[in-house]
Amino acid sequence: MRSHLMLAVVLGLAVTAVLWGQVDEYQVKAFFLYNFTRYVEWPAQRFNSPSDPIVICILGQNPFGSALELAVHGKVVAGRTVVVRRIAEINTQCNCHILFVGASEQRQFRSSAGVLRGSGVLTVGESKAFASDGGVINFKLENGKVRFEINVQAAGQEQLRISSKLLSLAEIVKTKG
Amino acid sequence: MNRLGGRATQFTSGRTLRAGGLIVKPVLAAGLLVSAAGWAQNLAQPDLSRMDVEDLMNVEVTSVSKREQKLSRTAAAIFVINREDIRRSGATSIPDLLRMVPGVDVQQIDANAWAISIRGFNSRYSNKVLVLIDGRTVYTPAFSGVYWEQIDMPLENIDRIEVIRGPGATVWGANAVNGVISIFTKSSKETRGGMVSAAAGSQVHGLGTVQYGGPAGKHGTYRAFGNYLAVGNSAAADGSPADDHWTRAHAGFRSDWELSDRDSLMVQGDLFANRASQTRRSNFVGTPYDRIFNQDMDQTGGDLLARWNHTLDNGSQTSFQTYFDTYRRTDFGLPEVLRTFDLDFQHHITQGDRNDIVWGLGYRVSNSALSPGYFLGFTPPSQTTSLFSAFLQDEIRASDSLWVTVGCKVEHNSYSGLETEPSVRLVWNEPGSRHTIWAAASKALRQPARADTAIAVDLQKIPIGAGSVQLMRLYGNPRIEDEELRDYELGYRSEFSKRLSFDVATFLSFYRHLETFEPQPLVVSPGPPKQFEIPMLFDNKAHAVSYGGEVSLNWRATSRWRLSPGYSYLHATLRQDPASQGLAGYTLATGFPQNMFQIRSLVNLPRKVEFDQSLYYTARLPGGTIPGHARLDLRLARRFGEFTEISVVGQNLLRPRAAEYGDSWGVIGTQAVRSVYGKITWRF
Question: Do the interacting molecules here have an ipTM over 0.95?
């Protein structure tokens, strides 16, 4: 009987938990992606009309759940809505403005990143070598906080104009080799 | 060596829970908790949508490691214990940490000995689970199994523990039959600065760690630590204090170097000295005539490991590792010494976007020595054996959704010669889908240990009449073969949402050539005392079929509360071949519970207070000697700033004492006692 009493106490205490505080990594990354649409300018030929949406693509595995859809829902950036799309593999037909490459897809990115080169896509990754492999922006975690690197050389190749504000917050890296 | 890297949570089919009240209550209570949690969800989360980039950069996030993402593609029953799990477990030893893995059976024999196994065959010398620390095997090839009390370390330094249930022989080689437990320590890059921790309580009398880490040269970092543990007596069967207290002193270091963009080097080493007390019976196979006595055991040892990782021009990665490991222990009053030297090379190649290939070569030489004693000895007393191995594994992307992994390990060992351990694994995961189905077929082997080939030990000695004794003596068999497993697994896992994940793994296992002790013709030697000896010889005359599964659920009920229930089921039938007249040496059925259930709850209260609960239920052991038992551990902790943490932990709280395993190989089982300790950790 004593054990049941103990259990009741434990569970009772558990219920009293009030919540605030930590947030899932990908909720935060989702809002970063949305913010990138505000601080990056794509080459004019990437849009057919002034009302064309900005397309954020998730390659392969989706680590966001529905967080990215929620983050961009109802948002308008310079007169454009933001939409999320999932793609299975990298190709030039997908018409993405931002391509998010999760850690699980880094291998695919490395082997087929060349396909995209020069097509004006802001590639965003989260793997150690992403930016030095030619990706434009790379997320990293430092002390439980999200930070990012920007490969300005890659951004230039893609004719992306990244605002000085974003650049000032980022760690600047170069393509290796 | 962590090719199956990933993180899963498991749960299974099997039978309905045979509920003692203890099981039903927590399930009901958990249900209540679940409904109560609803209201609390999403309260007081920061509003990210109003935040600009600078603000977002200051949000603290909970992170699932990179490794976890690959989980969806892992075709094995894998569970990862991460840093948070470790910190919040309240555990003071590696065995206690492993309790949280559904399907891993952890039972304390006495305060310094454990029986730990996966999917059956549990005993003090569980010999079908391979255990590695940073790629160094700690499975002893002398008596087989793991001396858990010799591998303890400051738990703060562990990065993660990956537990794979089921065979992993294709990559890890022999003895990875029923599972692989891989412990990875943190890089010294992550442990810069100082740490002092101290704990004291009713069972853990003292636990202290002093550690400091910093830069080593321009491109490297190091850490060095000293650690001391003193554990008090548990309780004997009649409730009086047992004599099984022990102490451990351990010093170690790790250094990591980025030699260039392409090269990294890791070097680490340990030295330890244990002193433990144990109560034994004079016969391994118990009789009413047994003498019960206490013995002191001394264990000392050390290891030194270096690993060099290099990235080649074509982007493929190589890893070269070497280590030396030694221990000396006096069990049964006899000094046993083991020395191991190991070389390991691996090459990882990504071939196009369809093939991911790993191959490797290994060489290990070990020397095992046991001074001959009155009732136990090895013939010859000292022997050096070598092991050569090579493996190749290719993970093939057959389509966007289907990955096929095929591989094989070839090994040559001094006892059973050349052997192969192939496997085929399939994973089905559509891009963007939350559901993964996997299946695997594999073969794994347990190589003979030196004891199986070279031992001579008195199992039982019974006085019969005046001046004569009957003796049952077990002899090693130089022609002993590998024990073999053919295993079929099917699993499913799903991330229903970022908050809820679910994992089921099922298995069907066929074992052949399991070890038995076969009686030989009676030998009579004239005394005094006149001796009637029944020689027993190791042989491979048993087989077994087992099936079962493990299920687990990981639910972030709210941003402050995580619940992880797990359940495992095992049904096993052990049969001796018609030609066998002996004892099945290592018991499959009697050492392992049919049902195990657990639930863990981690709660973040305001003001940086953490309140964590773990409840474990282990059903009656099939032999019937140990009844079903439950264990409750609680931890209450508060962090002060970033650098100080104070915690109070209660272990085994449900009853004043409870037997978990019983006797094993002559060691008298004791009862784990209810205990409390307080701990303070300070980093600077």
Answer: no
